[in-house]
Amino acid sequence: MLFNQRGMSLIEVTVSILIMGIVTFPLVYMYRAGGIHAAEAGDELSALNLARQVIEEIKSIPDNQTGFAGGAASNTVTLENRACSIDGFYNNYNIAICGGTGSGQVKKITGYDGASRRAVVDWDWLVVPDASSFYMLYGYCPGNYRYAISAENGRSGLKLIRVTVYYTVKNREREVTLTTEKIPR
After folding, report:
1. 146 bridge partner residues
2. Fewer CB atoms inside 10 A, N or C side of the chain?
């Protein structure tokens, strides 16, 4: 018995290509949109991880690494007398101005004079801290995002610590904020 071996007509081929195009276009769009949303979620997750890392670091610092600035200049700050008296002890630590004048600034300490309790920071202060400026010293937390730390008195003698990490998605700045309480030691 012989089978019909005529083949497909031009109309059948055209209709098949049209149907494939109608089905494929939304799938390609969803794949592309999914990739964009995954990248955005990755940036948010990285910012959240940095905030979590900073929070954990701050919760573990001893009380002598917090205090009020005893004065400052364009790229220095004087720490309280409770701070360590060993030269270079706080090199590569971060100092965050968490309250008062200059609040929200985070700088890296590049030099420390133990006798005078004076720390030199990597960049000039945008707003120079003064005696109302509450600071925290903590170890280095790597990250590609700008962040700010604030501290205020909470209930029962606790410090309420808030870490806000700023990141950019589609040319818009977004932020992630984590809050915790710290027991003074």
Report:
1. 166
2. N
Tokens coding 94: 């971060």
**What average pLDDT values come out for the chain (185 residues) when binned by 10 residues?**
65 87 85 82 90 88 89 93 93 92 92 95 94 89 83 79 90 91 70
**Where on the phi/psi map is residue 21: left (φ > 0), alpha (ψ -120 to 50), or beta?**
alpha
Please count the CA atoms within 13 angstroms of the CA of 25 that sit on its side-chain side: 5
Predicted confidence at residue 123, as pLDDT, reads: 92
For residues 133 and 72, the answer to whether their CB atoms sit within 8 Å is: yes
Residues 6+ away with beta carbon under 8 Å from 111: 88, 91, 119, 120
Q: How many residues does the chain have?
A: 185
Calpha distance 172→153 (Å, rounded): 32
- List CB contacts of 43: < 8 A, sequence separation 6 or more: 167, 168, 169
The conformation of residue 100, written as its DSSP 8-state character, comes to S
Return the pLDDT at 31.
82
**pLDDT at residue 6 in the model:** 67
For residues 97 and 67, give the distance between their C-alpha atoms in angstroms, rounded to a whole number.
Answer: 10
pLDDT at residue number 185: 54
Contacts of 87 (CB under 8 A, 6+ apart): 112, 113, 114, 115
